[in-house]
Amino acid sequence: MKTLLIGVGQAGGKLTRELVDYDNRMGFGAVRGAVGVNTAAADLRDLPFETVLVGRDRVNGQGVGGDSELGADVMETHTREVLATLEGRITAGIESIFVVAGLGGGTGSGGAPVLARELARVYDVPVYGLGILPGRDEGSMYQVNAGRSLKTFAREADALVLVDNDAFRSVGESLTGGFDAINREVAKRAGLLLAAGETVEGVGESVVDSSEIINTLRSGGIAALGYAAAEAAPEAGENINTVVSTTRQAVLTGSSLPDATDADAALLIVAGDPDAVPRKGVERARKWVEEETGSLQVRGGDFPLSSGRLAAVVLLGGVERSERLQSFIDRASEAQQSEKSDESAADPAAEWASDDLDDLV
Ligand SMILES: Nc1nc2c(ncn2[C@@H]2O[C@H](COP(=O)(O)OP(=O)(O)OP(=O)(O)O)[C@@H](O)[C@H]2O)c(=O)[nH]1
């Protein structure tokens, strides 16, 4: 799926850079362009693509210091500048736009939903979010920002793929030290998903195309992305169990949003050498995904790659009813209450005190 990436805020910019690097390294060519947007000049310096510094008049290139309302305000004021940098980049071949942001800070959490809304108004292609949830030991400001942003971002984008920063943290590793590793894990998942619609080598029996990604995300709301890989035997017949077990691992232990398995729709992509991919294994794995997610809309396909390994990438669409998300929302609501902010009923933050997740879609 030919995609344009827009990284908003520090985390958004860094993750976008990782996505661009991964796509280049693998030679996929699915990422057709990238732009970085930030209120902090220093965070834009290392990005190897076009950048836009917004809100200079308000924060003088220093960032918004975790104030997501200010982040949203700045983006409202400068949307035109950001859209101007996209002119000529959203060519006929572009099939989707991803707005990438950390939801715990101010620039990304406030700015990304505003930008998604404006992009959806201007362009016909789907506008997706790729949002990062703060880890559970980050401070309450991060939790509240993410809680508020999550709901708005999911509403304004055509779907929001979530990454929980706790999902890829190894035991005992500090979160900050682990960011690069987390970004690599996310880039692999998202990079393979985007590239799956672009045939790279050979032609598999049932190759995935972009419309399957779009259809899996069609119900909107929150999505999760899982991945796992294992050594492949040369003969397809010997790999039936491998395909099933990597698929289970992708969903159960390799997901960007762990424990979010109750889904509206799913897409299973099996990547590997076409001669090593067993049809029977793919069918069984697909059945397993149907049972695990409770969804009857499970699509599947191959991604032919010359590799001695087999990988399963699983995109789950419409996972907002998951316990994991509920526990995050509880955490954000608690943080908000403990900050004793005196929100009124008209304040969007007040909606986060509600347990009613159906509001998301
Ligand atoms: N996965 C990942 N998360 C990150 C990274 N950098 C920061 N974060 C997370 O993103 C959140 C902070 O967002 P930032 O992107 O730093 O903030 P910002 O949007 O630039 O906003 P301000 O700094 O307030 O202007 C926190 O929850 C961090 O845990 C990164 O490189 N990778």
Terminal Cα separation, in Å? Answer: 24 Å
Low-confidence stretches: 342-361
Please give the number of β-strands: 10
Mean pLDDT: 90
Task: Tell me the CATH superfamily of the largest domain.
Answer: Tubulin/FtsZ, GTPase domain
User: What proportion of the residues is helical, as a percent range?
Assistant: 40-55%
Description:
Involved in cell shape control. Residues 2-202 form the Tubulin/FtsZ GTPase domain. This protein has a ten-stranded mixed β-sheet with strand order 3-2-1-4-5-6-7-10-8-9, sandwiched between helices. It is built from twelve helices and ten strands. The chain is α/β, with parallel strands linked by helices. It starts with a strand and ends in a 10-residue tail after the last helix. The site of guanosine-5'-triphosphate has 27 residues, from helix 1, helix 5 and helix 7.
Topology:
Elements: E1 3-8, H1 9-26, E2 31-38, H2 41-44, E3 50-53, H3 56-59, H4 68-86, E4 96-102, H5 107-122, E5 127-133, H6 140-156, E6 159-164, H7 175-196, H8 210-216, E7 222-231, H9 240-252, E8 265-272, H10 279-293, E9 298-304, E10 309-317, H11 323-338, H12 348-351
Parallel strand pairs: 1-2, 1-4, 2-3, 4-5, 5-6, 6-7, 8-9
Antiparallel strand pairs: 7-10, 8-10
Bound molecules: guanosine-5'-triphosphate.
